Amino acid sequence: MNDSGHTASSSLQQILDAAEQLIKEKGCRQTTLQDIITSSGLSKGAIYHYVSGKDELFGMILKSKMETMNARFLQAVTQSAERDARMPVQSISEGMTSSTDKEQVSNKIFTYLLSQVDNPKVADVLREVYQYSLQTATAWITTGQQKGAIPPEIDAGHMASMYMVFTYGLRVRNTIMQETEGAIPTEDIFGLLIHSLK
What we know:
Blueprint: H1 3-26, H2 33-40, H3 44-50, H4 54-79, H5 86-99, H6 105-114, H7 120-146, H8 156-176, H9 186-196
């Protein structure tokens, strides 16, 4: 990659990191685009080069978190023995547990955006994030099938849709729950995923 591509990538990462830190400190509602500009040290023009507003930026953070889960999954697939679905599925289970924790930035963003779904721009951001997540989950299942870890007769698109229903339901449940008591353990999610992929 050339230097300008590296700089652009570096600038975007700076913006995402600054936004994520501010959300941890202040929450989504209180974080403004001006806060992100100030915290990142980049110009307003640099931020607007990537996004038109904070909701779009928040959507990019959600996609970035999905990319991180995808990288973990691909690493687990590479490291696991052929026909062993346990490592990749364990990776997905851990990612689901982490991303649906109500204290995680990704869940705070999801809840914030969902509360504004009547705004057409926010609805578009949520649809885009959903489609991206669905495509990624479909690719996971297809990869598992190619490796012989997931039966070929499973409909990857349908199974990915079920994964999204479960993940989104888990996000809402964990947001509503006031304590961590009664949280669904990673092992239970892992067991459910393994069972559904047989």
